[in-house]
Amino acid sequence: MFVNKMPRYEILSEDAVATLDSGWRRLITEIGVEFMDQRALDLFAQAGQKVEDNTVFLDPDFVLEQVAKAPREFDIQARNPEHSVHIGGDSMAFGAVYGPPFVREGEVRRDATMADFRNFTKLAQSFDALDSAGGVICEPNDTPLDSRHLDMIYALQTLTDKIYMGNVVSGTNAADTVKMTEILFGSRESIEQTPATISLINCNSPLRWDDRMLEAQFEYSAANQPVVLTPFLLMGAMSPVTIPAALVQQITEALSGIALSQLIRPGAPVVFGSFLSNINMQSGSPTFGTPESGIGLLCTGQIARHFGLPFRTGGGLTSSQVADAQAGYEALMTMLPTFLAGANWVMHSAGWLEGGLVAGYEKFIVDAEILQMLQHEFTPLEIDEASMAFDAHQEVGHGGHFLGAMHTMERFRTCFYRPFLSSSDNYERWMRNGSADTNARAGAIWKQRLEDYEQPPLDDAVRAELEEYVVRRRAELGD
Fold this sequence. Notes:
The chain is of the alpha/beta class. It has a domain at 2-9 and 67-377: Alpha-Beta Barrel (TIM Barrel), CATH 3.20.20. It is 45% helix and 14% strand. Strands 10, 11, 13, 14, 15, 16 and 17 form a seven-stranded mixed beta sheet that branches. It has a four-stranded mixed beta sheet with strand order 3-4-2-12. Strand 3 and strand 4 form a beta hairpin.
């Protein structure tokens, strides 16, 4: 995984942080937050918080007491220990796109299938820059709705040996994820001691945690599996149009969800989540890769550090329908501030298209290139006597060139990042090689990656137990 040693880019003054602090305190006290689950309401009431119907009016100091119980950093184990990750501090972990019901393969946009899900899982396994295939990489519409989560978790467990995300559609799906994770790692005790999955709990913004998300949160937090408490904010729709107002709402929602996890199980690992962008005020459509989302992203990192929490934000987001220039520059507009802010858990790092409706094969490759380049760019520069190359100047002298210098010959294989997607051919050579543009090259790369894919080994007894569980649970769920 990548460790970001670069300085953090912080844009909020002390006065600004203080103003935001007073804002969320007022919002959480006077407006409150809805929790659509009686167990959550009971926990807050038992803790002395004011509860009216489904709304909880929280004491800010109580919230901060709960937040202080959450670990600042924690580990997530992968079945291949080399792929285990650390969440928090300078560590950055990257997962693929999450949630699209459609896929794009070249010129074709269609419903996602289980075959697509497996393909994207294999692609994620093939790129070292990705720490996880994610969770719902795409929604496999050709499998039964009530049991498809079993097939997805099984694919993530067997086609990769990296960490994976749990299913959060319902408490039942979350419980199945936990049970399958117990099977993969040997016991409940093993995964409670070191978490083995991470799950996204989205707030139904503004200011409501719905029943399905809360059911899943109860399952995961009780099992000591980390949850990413994420407000879903599109400014102008799910929050006011100003960035400060969105930030105040984001703090209120995230901290209230984090407080609940600590009531469920004190010390349960959590991540301060952020999904913050805006809508097009002419059409009402969501927009991504915007300057406003970049500003909000940088602010979120500073805010999460203020509360001593690991945080999630960023990704290769775009509104573009295809993997074109817009997709590239909007993805970079989101991913660059992700690195500048030092986000700890980064979803949607590869494959996001069309505002998250589409998982794109070619876009997956474009994003992987962007991610690898940024990881290279954010690796601290080592400056020592050898790197200053005085001996090369002695050898070449005035007016020469360094192509054949000994200093160059010793380093030419590793001195620069070598892109796997970009082309630097001259025009004539590019034409002779078929004049392939970025999309065409990306298409060839993902197909070759799938041809070269090798499934990581897994103990036959564990595989058989997982298969038996999937078959049994599918029958019990009526599929």
